Amino acid sequence: MLLFIEQVLNGLQLGVMLFLMASGLTLVFGIMGLINLAHGSLYMVGAYVAATVTLHTDSFLLGLAAALPAAAAVGAVIESGIMRRLYDRDHLDQVLATFGLILFFNDLMVILWGRQPLFMNVPEALSGTVELVPGAPYPIYRLVIIAVGLLVAVGLWALITKTRLGMRIRAGASDRETADALGVNIGLLYTGVFTLGAALAGLAGAMAGPLLAVEAGMGESILILTFVVVVIGGIGSVRGALAGAILVGLVDTLGRAFLPDVLRMVTDQATADGAGSSLAAMSIYILMAAVLVWRPKGLFPAHG
Amino acid sequence: MASPMRRPLSVRARLGVHLAGLLVLALLPPLLTLIGEPFYVTLATRMLILALAAVSLDLILGYGGMVSFGHAAFVGVGGYVTGILAHHAFMGEPLALFGLAVPGMNEALVVWPLAMAVSALAALVIGVLSLRTGGVHFIMITLAFAQMLYFLMVSLEAYGGDDGLMLWGRNTLAGADVLGNRTLFYYLCLGLLAAVLLALRRLVDSRFGLVLQGARQNERRMRALGFPVTRYRLAAFTLAGAIAGLAGALSVNHAEFASPTLLHWTHSGELLVIVILGGMGTLVGPVLGALAFVGLEEALSGLMEHWRVVFGPLLILVVLFARSGLHGWLIGRRPMGRTRP
């Protein structure tokens, strides 16, 4: 039971990470109609900058403070240099151009930082554990990630539904030309949304730094998971991104932890372990297939 | 975005260009031996196999308008069928599959069609699910399913898992152990590629191909005319999967190695790049694309270790400014219609 609670928390932590990625991806798609494969590269930039600054200054906060603007700046540059020319193109062009960006960024990171992965320590103030349930110590750092992710979710919700900027974002998403005619600076708005998404990806990358090895290509594994999240949640919907992210985080984590055990009840151990690990690796894709059969547009399809 | 494009050549002139290209490819091995670089026959073989996979993708991408970002998965499935059967043939123990004992096999005439069949089955299942959606969903879903198959192969510990599966030699052809011959294998790949190109050319000009292209240009109209558009697309998707499976079987024979990287998503991306680079919706274009891609990779990686740092921006420039591809530049054609909205 204690193990189960721990794994649920791990699943939540993966889920909010995925949400930070998926919210940016889904906003950019929902508003600009752009599929951005290079979103994972922004995550990687965030992780590299955070790791480097933290290793030099011994302060994770400074690392975080550097990673966010760095990812946002890279985002703003690629938006105004490349993405802007792709909004009116078909998805195939967008896929290819952003694929080119991934190749560029991955090799650039290797040139700048070398092939050796960087390792970050969990910041000292957050390195302990806490007993949420008696007898089940859980790392504070992971709890903080969950809290930050949920805060961002609330913040995004407030931004989009409660502020004038959010109103403009919604207007731009539902009818670009009318919003433009009513005096909304669409070009600036698009750059702003893209930069916001980039900053969130950078935040996810920086927070993932102490948990994973920081290396070239780290953005792609999370990018593909993010796609699964976005497809399950419904493309363009931030609410869907949150629901999809938590669902995928839980299914993936719990599947890996418990599927072999569950299968052991119905078959012998060797088969159960083999099939269990295979099934666990495929579980979220099976979940995606099931959602597609049930609701081809995702759980919370965006309007328009 | 209009790039300078030649006026389309006449049908006869076009045929002439294609035959000349085939002649060059056919004369390549003796030429390379003559100039003392027989190593390049191996490289040229890799190019032909890549071209075969890219041509199959062009059927669904260029003619069907389906942007599949998971095509490498079918190459990988075909490759793994070949690798696993060869592994069991070598070990001398049958493969237990759902209670059936499948004997290991090493005969190309049996294994390759089997690889195509299993890849086609994978494409059929993935196609049924993915074609429920369109546009950007389709891109993400094909990518995700390909990734699922990638992780499945990684989890096959009995077949090397992450490290892949080493073969103990190439398949036999009609009982004879001849595929190890570099030149013979090259000509076999060339023959298969030419046969697939001819067959697909006839297919895209047939009623089936016209329905497929009509659905790309105006799906609603084709539906109104009473065509079951999704079923046509699914048939094309499955066929493309089968051809990719053949490319996988050839590729594993070529490298004598099957590994999960065959299914890696970057390979799906590379196949898309090859089709676009060559010119999509032309069938012959992807062959040029494969030639250019392998050549560029060879040249750039010879110049510098991190060649992708140049290749990536190059790709962006091609997308932004040179959409008609090499085929359009060499032979000329009308710009293709847009892909499915």
From TrEMBL, chain A:
Q: Do you know which Pfam families this protein is assigned to?
A: BPD_transp_2
Q: Name one GO biological process term.
A: amino acid transport
Species source reads: Rhodospira trueperi
Gene Ontology MF annotations: transmembrane transporter activity
Annotated localization: Cell membrane
Q: What is its main location?
A: membrane
So where does this one cross the membrane? 12-39, 59-83, 95-114, 140-160, 181-202, 222-251, 272-294
- The protein's superkingdom reads Bacteria
Question: What's the protein name?
Answer: Branched-chain amino acid transport system permease protein
State the GO CC annotations.
plasma membrane
Sorted alphabetically, which keywords does the UniProt record give?
A: Amino-acid transport, Cell membrane, Membrane, Transmembrane, Transmembrane helix, Transport
Taxonomy-wise, where does this protein's organism fall, top ranks first? Bacteria, Pseudomonadati, Pseudomonadota, Alphaproteobacteria, Rhodospirillales
Describe the family membership recorded for this protein in Swiss-Prot or TrEMBL. Belongs to the binding-protein-dependent transport system permease family. LivHM subfamily.
| InterPro entries attached to this UniProt entry | ABC_transp_permease (IPR001851), BCAA_transport_permease (IPR052157)
Q: How does it sit in the membrane?
A: Multi-pass membrane protein
TrEMBL record, chain B:
Offer a single GO CC term for the protein.
plasma membrane
State the annotated membrane topology for this chain: Multi-pass membrane protein
Q: Does the keyword Transmembrane helix apply?
A: yes
InterPro entries (alphabetical): ABC_transp_permease, LivM-like
Coiled-coil intervals, chain numbering: none
Query: What are the TM regions of this chain, as residue ranges?
Result: 43-62, 69-90, 110-131, 138-159, 179-200, 232-252, 272-296, 308-331
Q: What is this protein called?
A: Branched-chain amino acid transport system permease protein
